[in-house]
Every structure is written in structure tokens, then in C-alpha cells.
Design a protein that fits this description.
The chain is α/β, with parallel strands linked by helices and about 200 residues long. The chain is about 20% helix and about 25% strand. The protein has 5 helices and 8 strands, in the order αβαβαββαβαβββ.
């Protein structure tokens, strides 16, 4: 495992007037975000520690309902909030369902405007978005992400798995600033920040 990961993954603090939004995902070399329908097999111990650090920094974790169902999300520890974006409220019996700090929301109107309105509820907080790809696509298309944490898994799986972010809207193509690249067990850990953002 990479030494001193906390020094590389200091996140926030958020500005007082809006949330600090982090997208955190794992993907294969050819861009797949799942193997046999889930992402767990793609990472290693360092990837799991990066996820833990991101969650530790978060006040709010935002995730799509399909990801909650596929990954069988568990409740997060209070006072953190798990916000599930869902069209119908179906969490497929995931352990997080029914937990007091799990909130199911459907942004209105749908799409980036609704997502922006949702995230605007959390000024001064760190929000970590854990996917899936459709939710990530909305976050990026709306210009809401401040930084992106990506673990690149040393696998090429082809198939039809969705890439890290997708959707009908294109994100701002301006290059982001690379903060670091770490290597562990042939996995790459990259952290990008939107250009012009204050550093932590």
C-alpha cells in the first residue's frame, strides 16, 4: 500500500457558499467501471483506503440508486448523510435502505439543473459523488465537480460496461490540473482538480 496516503488525499475544506464536490471512481485501463456488474473486483487495498479517506472527508455521499443496488451499499455512519438519487426509490434491498441518515431524492427537474439544485442544499460541506456513470455524467456536464479521484485498474475487460461518466450532455473540455499520480500493485491513482480552484 502507498505510504502516507492521507497526505495525498487531503480534501476540502469547502467554501462557505457552496459544497466542494469530489467524484471518486475506479475504472479499468479500457474504461470499464464494473466487472460482472460490480466495481469491487477492480480495486486493491490502496483503492479501498482512498475510498475510506474520501468518505472520511465527506459530509455527504451522493450515489445513484443503480449503484446502491448493484454494490449493496451499507449505511454510512452518522453524522454523514448518504443521498441516493433515484427515480422510483427502489434500492433493491440494499442494507442502506431504511437507515436514518439515508435520504432518497429525485432532483426536479431531472438532469443537471436538478442535480445543481440538490447539491446547493449543502453549502460549506464536502460532497463525494461515488457514481454511477450516469450520475457522474450529470455532475460533470453541469460543471459541479471540483476534483476527480480515479483509480485505474490494470485490467482490460472489453464488454459493455459503462465508462466513468456518460450522458447526453458534454462536460467542459478545458483540461484539468493533475495533482498527483501514485502507483501500487500496477494500479494507478490519479487526482485531478479543476483549474483555478484553491488548493488544500
Amino acid at each position: 500500500m502507498v505510504e502516507d496516503l492521507p497526505a495525498f488525499y487531503r480534501i476540502g475544506p469547502a467554501p462557505p457558499d457552496r459544497p466542494w464536490v469530489v467524484v471518486s471512481m475506479v475504472a479499468t485501463v479500457d474504461g470499464a467501471t464494473a466487472l460482472d456488474g460490480v466495481s469491487g473486483a477492480l480495486g486493491n487495498d490502496t483503492d479501498r483506503e482512498v475510498l475510506r479517506l474520501a468518505r472520511a472527508a465527506a459530509d455527504v455521499i451522493v450515489v445513484g440508486a443503480a449503484t446502491v443496488r448493484a454494490e449493496q451499499y451499507r449505511p454510512v455512519r452518522e453524522p454523514k448523510q448518504l443521498v441516493v438519487v433515484s427515480r422510483n426509490g427502489d434500492l433493491g434491498g440494499a442494507p442502506a435502505a431504511g437507515a436514518p441518515n439515508t435520504h432518497i431524492v429525485r432532483p426536479e427537474p431531472d438532469g443537471p439543473d436538478g442535480l445543481a439544485a440538490l447539491l446547493a442544499r449543502y453549502p460549506g460541506r464536502v460532497v463525494v459523488c461515488e457514481g454511477g456513470p450516469s450520475l457522474n455524467g450529470q455532475v460533470l456536464a453541469a460543471g459541479l465537480a471540483d476534483e476527480v479521484l480515479v483509480t485505474i485498474s490494470p485490467r482490460l475487460v472489453a464488454g459493455g460496461s459503462a465508462r466513468l461518466a456518460h450522458g447526453p450532455d458534454q462536460a467542459d473540455p478545458t483540461p484539468w490540473e493533475l495533482r498527483h499520480v501514485l502507483v501500487d500493485e500496477d494500479h494507478l491513482f490519479v487526482r485531478y482538480r479543476r483549474r483555478g480552484e484553491a488548493t488544500s
